[in-house]
Write a structure and sequence with these properties.
Layout lengths: L1 H25 L5 E15 L4 E6 L6 E2 L4 E5 L2 H26 L3 H33 L5 H30 L3 H26 L2 E3 L4 E6 L6 E2 L4 E18 L11 E5 L7 E9 L4 E2 L14 E9 L11 E6 L1
Antiparallel strand pairs: 1-8, 1-13, 2-4, 2-7, 3-6, 4-5, 6-8, 8-12, 9-10, 10-12, 11-12
Helix pairs in contact: 2-5, 3-4
């Protein structure tokens, strides 16, 4: 009888204990679970020059390497400009060569022969003047005739000087300033050619990043302005988790601290992350505010964490769960 009473009392105590434990458990605050998401570095592949896209060499989901051709741009206008620049360089080079080499041998010979012709005419005019002067001294000719002979001699002498200067100029070639100007025109034309070639080389656009093509905004045949992102490349090797942490929970986070998170899309396994960044400026939360008695709203701070090891099949936008004890 006493045994039965003891069992009944024990059963009652167990029931009461279970009820008390249940109430205690029910009134315990639920664990804090932070919801974050995966982000990764994303880069745009754009053209330096405007034009019509000739071909797109990649598709969404393709893996690209550094230096891989992504798309090309048709360049009929640049081809025409390159021809113009080549023609200008050829013309400027010819003028520079002509300035450096000076007059041709035939031109120098012609100038020399003209000088010799004027010298002969000067000598004849001088002899004629001396004869007239002697006749004038003898009273045979008038003074007017003597003056005419003297004037003819002076004219031929000046003509000889001019012919000699022309001959000297032909021998010396172009002036220094003329040669410098011709060299400058050649450099200018060469610069135009180099510019056209550089722009033409920019018609083939290569990836400067390694990753996966996340989006292709334009198709072959469409026109792209310079700098417009034609292809987006996502680098999943540089991925991280982003959490919006309320300021009353921020004291639980320290840069460099390791945390264990769940990624539901990848199963029930836990993954180790390390806190890499805590925002220095908070934003107002749109989903949590304190009561009116406290008199202030809670702010949130962005916290980033990076995986300690590469995670297979990780994708941007996946949910990340962090349970705080």
């Amino acid at each position: 009888m006493k045994m039965k009473s003891a069992l009944v009392i024990l059963a009652v105590l167990l029931v009461i204990g279970w009820i008390v434990w249940g109430f205690w458990k029910a009134y315990q605050p639920p664990p804090v679970v932070l919801h974050g998401e995966i982000e990764a570095s994303e880069f745009s592949v754009a053209a330096k020059i405007p034009g019509r896209i000739a071909s797109i060499e990649v598709r969404k989901g393709d893996a690209v390497q550094v230096g891989q051709l992504v798309f090309t741009i048709a360049t009929p206008v640049l081809d025409a400009k390159l021809e113009q620049a080549e023609g200008a360089r050829q013309s400027a080079g010819a003028l520079e060569h002509a300035a450096d080499t000076g007059a041709r041998k035939q031109e120098i010979k012609v100038a020399y022969e003209n000088w010799q012709t004027t010298r002969a005419a000067e000598e004849l005019a001088l002899m004629t003047y001396h004869r007239i002067q002697n006749l004038y001294d003898d009273g045979v000719v008038a003074e007017q005739r003597r003056d005419e002979a003297f004037a003819a001699h002076q004219a031929t002498r000046n003509t000889t000087k001019a012919a000699h200067e022309l001959y000297s100029m032909a021998k010396e070639g172009a002036r220094v300033e003329t040669r410098d100007a011709a060299a400058g025109q050649t450099r200018l034309a060469s610069g135009l050619v180099a510019e056209a070639l550089a722009l033409k080389s920019a018609a083939a656009v290569y990836s400067a990043f390694k990753g996966e093509v996340s989006n292709v905004f334009l198709k072959a045949g469409e026109i792209t302005p310079p700098g417009f992102p034609v292809v987006m490349v996502l680098d999943m090797s540089d991925a991280w988790a982003v959490f919006q942490v309320r300021e009353d929970l921020l004291n639980r986070f320290t840069k460099g601290t390791e945390i264990s998170v769940l990624i539901p899309a990848l199963g029930d396994a836990a993954y180790a992350f390390s806190i890499s960044h805590i925002s220095v400026m908070g934003d107002f939360a749109t989903w949590r505010a304190t009561s009116a008695v406290t008199g202030y709203d809670m702010k949130t701070f962005e916290v980033e964490a990076r995986p300690l090891e590469p995670i297979e099949n990780l994708r941007v936008g996946m949910t990340v769960l962090l349970k705080l004890d």
